Amino acid sequence: MITDLFIDGEWRPGSDGKRFDVIDPADLSVVAQFAVASEKDCMDAVDAAAAAQPTWAATAPRERSELLRKAYEILTDEVEVFAEIMVRENGKSWSDAMGEAGYAKEFFRWFAEEAVRVPGDYRLSPAGDKRIIVDRSPIGVSLLITPWNFPAAMATRKLAPALAAGCTTILKPARETPLTAAYVVDVLRRAGVPDGVVNLVTPVPTGPLVKAMIDRPEVRKLSFTGSTEVGRDLLHACADSVVSTSMELGGNAPLIVLPGADLDEAVEGALLAKMRNGGSACTAANRFYVHDSVHDEFVSRMTDALAKVKVGSGLDRANGLGALVSVAERDKVASLVAGAVDEGATLQLGGNASADGAFYDATLLTGVTHGSTITTTEIFGPVTAIVRFDDVDEAVRMANDTEFGLMAYVFGEERAAVAVARRLEAGMVAVNRGVVSDPAAPFGGVKQSGLGREGSSEGILEFLEEKYIALTA
Ligand code: NAD
Which residues are catalytic, by number? Predict the structure, then answer.
């Protein structure tokens, strides 16, 4: 496994020789000791990206495209290696890791195709006497900051459009999961990315050193995925030098089961919406609103299905639910469940944390009150919290009663479900489906869940800026 920084085309230890432990959350052992990036290393990464920017921007789109395609092919050949690194440092189950590996590599393929299709525009002025050309060029050096929950896909969802657009990059992964990021960067190196075009740093202390990079005038873009709290701070930091931002922030997704919903479909979708990635997903269904008429049957089927989920190390492919990323996350989930019970909910299933790894059982709570802490906090774990409702307007009001707006799910007869979907304040709404993530679709949130979109044809536009060239007719 690679445990160093990548700066100007070279793997190297941190300039002050320090390292931090990467922990396997399944058994709490040390998987690796990763290099700490000092301020000098961060500045070297900005220098390298800035030096490489003009040449990379001038590279033929076809060349950038083929490099991304090559990276996609390497990841396809090595998909199990890729998945295993994720399991070791993140704790996720084997099927979640393979699912993420498949999703992550698709961004390289998708943006290999988008690199050669950047749109421009040509217009005649309304008076017919002028020509207006709208040209698009790479925004410049881009700082990419990713979270630990999808350590591969969040990196490729940023690296691929940035590289396709002609931007050079500095990737800063989460401290919990640097090994997956280092592996992805090495795949790009092997695919032939020129020196300085992709750099990887893991700065400590994080906040001040990220701010120091943002303050460098060469850095023109921050693409961040993480919590709303950190995103807000970074928006302030970017304001000082008017750096362009894309923000994929926290979620608090409602999942509504309407009267008349097909319960086979609803339970299957709800299991995916809740349990994918062990519930550690910004898109995870966080609050279930289930209509009175289907409530008891839905609860009974969900309880039966969740009781069958096998918990344990992701290296054992038979386990359906892996570990949470850390003991701190496990304890946070346990305290949310205990708090929900104190606030009047009933524990129907689960509620157990393991002592020798960061495991938490699949858990189901009923009688949850809308507005209680578990419905206003991003759980980020395998806990289904069910609120009963009897009026659809009230369900819509409760679903929208949050500062977040990333994802929402509706299950019901299609016309009724689409009518509700239209009323939900979210960047993405799934109707009778449990997973929406798709490289070909625009991913992103409204309200305090973010700014901008990733993936799709919109994703590359985040790394391009428009130039108007004025001509005579
Ligand atoms: P986090 O905000 O704690 O960390 C995200 C990244 O920011 C990490 O790389 C971290 O090291 C870095 N960071 C932390 N403090 C920083 C600071 N002061 N300055 C600069 N960088 C800093 O989030 P997390 O705990 O790693 O991930 C979970 C969060 O990410 C959840 O809220 C989840 O909803 C969100 N998320 C959102 C999406 C999305 O697409 N909207 C996707 C995945 C995760």
Answer: 248, 282
For the chain, give the percent of residues with pLDDT over 70. Answer: 100
Is residue 350 within 8 Å of residue 306, measured between CB atoms?
A: yes
Averaged pLDDT for residues 320-330: 98
pLDDT score for 355: 86
Mutate to test the pocket of ligand 1, among 223, 246, 282, 380 (most ligand atoms within 8 A of CB): 282
3-state secondary structure the chain: CCCCEEECCEEECCCCCCEEEEEECCCCEEEEEEECECHHHHHHHHHHHHHHHHHHHHCCHHHHHHHHHHHHHHHHHCHHHHHHHHHHHHCCCHHHHHHHHHHHHHHHHHHHHHHHHCCCEEEECCCCCEEEEEEEEECCEEEEECCCCCCCHHHHHHHHHHHHHCCCEEEECCCCCHHHHHHHHHHHHHHCCCCCCEEECCECCHHHHHHHHHCCCCEEEEEEECCHHHHHHHHHHHHHCCCEEEEECCCCEEEEECCCCCHHHHHHHHHHHHHHHHHCCCCCEEEEEEEHHHHHHHHHHHHHHHHCCCECCCCCCCCCECCCCCHHHHHHHHHHHHHHHHCCCEEEECCCECCCCCCECCEEEECCCCCCHHHHCCCCCCEEEEEEECCHHHHHHHHHCCCCCCEEEEECCHHHHHHHHHHCCCCEEEECCCCCCCCCCCECCCHHHEECCECHHHHHHCCEEEEEEEEEC
Q: Which residues line ligand 1 (CB under 6 A)?
A: 145-150, 154, 172-175, 206-207, 210, 225-227, 230, 233-234, 248-251, 282, 378, 406, 445, 450
Q: What is the pLDDT of residue 473?
A: 82
Distance of CA 212 from the midpoint of ligand 1 (Å): 18
Atom 6 of ligand 1: nearest residue by CA position: 147
CA of 149 to the centre of ligand 1 (A): 9
Q: Which residue, judged by its Cα, is nearest atom 17 of ligand 1?
A: 207
**177 alpha carbon to ligand 1 midpoint, in Å?**
12
pLDDT for the residue numbered 356: 87
**Which atom number of ligand 1 is nearest to the Cα of residue 226?**
30
